[in-house]
Amino acid sequence: MLRERAPGLQARDRGGGAVTAASGSALRIGTRGSALALAQATPVAEKLGAELVVIQSGGDRDRSTPLADFGGTGVFVTALREALLAGEVDALIHSYKDLPTAPADGLEIAAVPRRADARDALAARDGLTLEHLPQGARIGTGSPRRRAQLLARRADLDVVGLRGNIDTRLGRVGGADAGIDPERRLDAIVLAAAGLDRLGRSAEATELFPLDPWPTAPAQGALAVEARTGAVPRALRSVDHQPSRLTAEAERAVLARLEAGCAAPLGVHALLDDGLLFVSARVYALDGSAHLTSSHAMYAADVRDPAGELAARVAGELLDQGAAELAPLGPGGAAS
Predict the structure, then answer these.
(1) What's the predicted TM-score (pTM) here?
(2) 117 included as an active-site residue
(3) Which of 3, 205, 233, 258 is at 20 to 30 A from 122, Cα to Cα?
(4) Mean pLDDT of 273-299
């Protein structure tokens, strides 16, 4: 592992690249090194008075391979967890939707901070909405779920695979006079509203898609603070927001029950309102030509594991309706 120090900086690498971290207190919190990862981790670290340690993964260095082909969102998690288990950091901050649903030996979710906006956003040229984009418009996304949702709304769209950080993706959006290589130019992209907000780029959104007709990735907008089992720093409990934890866990439990990964076009939305936990999930055909939906609700105080109970009902109903035949679900379809 490469390590180097400068005043106020620390570097740790678990895969061959250089990384940096901001100095703080003795509590060390690991994160990815992207601008978005730092933007979402920094407020939590500052609230805890912690040192933020940046750890780079192979997925961060390879920007050309589609994420689903690269091995799923879990590719970003492995290097961080290795550092945590090795005692190089005391906790990790993840984008919760990037975590594999299978439990990690020796680790636990110590806290889920208050959740940000879970919606998807459209960032289009000339302030356009999805409805007003021209026939055959080129829209970029790396998500099979977003691709299916776009095609379900507009089968005429040319949906283009897309990776890269938010600035890189936004830089491909523009009209014919924008000075962008025509082969790379896009009319719009779809991305998480929370990411735009955390980077101060909310003004780039030309449309926000309501969660009811456009459910998003399980736990989108939520963060997960992970620590070693039996060695959870007490301070981490102070950033745990129970309603956010419950809704994120319910959404991820549907994902786990369906054995779905990032290659599966699945959207899930959970809502806690006056003690009533509501979970709705939708599975799409990859081409957007069909979808199946299931929704259930219960009072969270009525059962020991409301997230798991509701997820079992929702996932079971989807499978009974034929979700596994409609979309790539199960071990063969899971990518994370």
Answers:
(1) 0.87
(2) no
(3) 258
(4) 97
